Amino acid sequence: MFCGLLHGQNEGRKIFVKSGYGYFNGFHTGLNYFYSENRNAGIGIGSHFKLSPLKTPNHFVLYLEHNFHFGKENKQGVKAWIFNQQIMYWEQGASYHRWKIMSLGVNIGRIIAITENLGLGLEIGPAFNLVLDVDRHPTVEQSGWIWPILPNGRLQFIYLL
Asked: Are 105 and 88 in contact (CB under 8 A)?
């Protein structure tokens, strides 16, 4: 019983890196670890770098995630469907009007294997948002808000080590 948990899926390969673009994550990179056969946890960092489509100034995100894999295994040796949960701390805005927000993202997704090591991940779902703080310069009008629920999604390359 313990042997299966220790080796997990994908023939002993337990670590993978991912990099891509997401609505909340921006251009991001992360590192994940399979701690059981169908579950992995990870950490990542990202930014929009003032690029389209959002052109958000000074966007930064740090996230922790947990994934549950299910369905048939792909040629990477991982189950192709995932249920992803993310806790994201993100900041955006100029120095005179900066938002600090905590979000819970709940996504469903699929990993499409390209090779035995490389895959393409697609995820979509809602993100539930909580504004922690808004730093405003005294001369800035107090307007604007963050919606409590927004769409969330990611497209990323996944490389199994």
From this structure: yes
Give the other-Cβ count within 10 Å of 84's Cβ: 22
Residues 6+ apart with CB under 8 A from 112: 74, 80, 119, 120, 121, 122
pLDDT tens-digit readout, 128-158:
999 999 887 777 676 667 889 999 999 999 9
What confidence tens digit (pLDDT) does each residue in 47-62 have? 988 766 556 567 899 9
Q: Name 69's bridge partners.
A: 82
DSSP for 37-55? SSEEEEEEEEE-TT-TTT-
Name which of 62, 75, 70 is nearest 158 in CA terms.
75
CA distances from 80 to 122, 136, 161 (A): 11, 44, 17
User: Are the beta carbons of 18 and 159 closer than 8 angstroms?
Assistant: yes
What pTM did the predictor assign? 0.84
